[in-house]
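Appendix C reproduces, verbatim, an entry submitted by the partner laboratory led by Prof. M.T., so that reviewers can inspect both the input and the predicted structure.
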Amino acid sequence: MPLFNKKFESKPIPARVNRCNIGYPIVTEDIDDFRKISLNLGNKKLRFADGIWMHSVRKGDVDDMLRLNKKFRALEEENNMCNLKIEVMLDLLAEHATELNELKPKEKCE
């Protein structure tokens, strides 16, 4: 008589046919529809864009603001990179000037 018989073996798991949407139609909504949410509060019109609510008179205002914000971020990054390059160049210049000042007295003594 075997010590471990078939009662300890794993049973096969049946495959799932459907996931949680049993009897419901497949969602066909486009996510771009949710990116252009607007809200009318009396005489004010707000649009939700890029994670914030913006007051706008025309639809193009929000697009212009988003384009300008992206351009502003790009220019800020470029400015930071230029400042970093200037700092590195100043460090190299200071190092080179120090090396030249160390060599000058040695030449005069000889």
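Residues 32-104 form one domain. Additional entries are available on request from the coordinating office.
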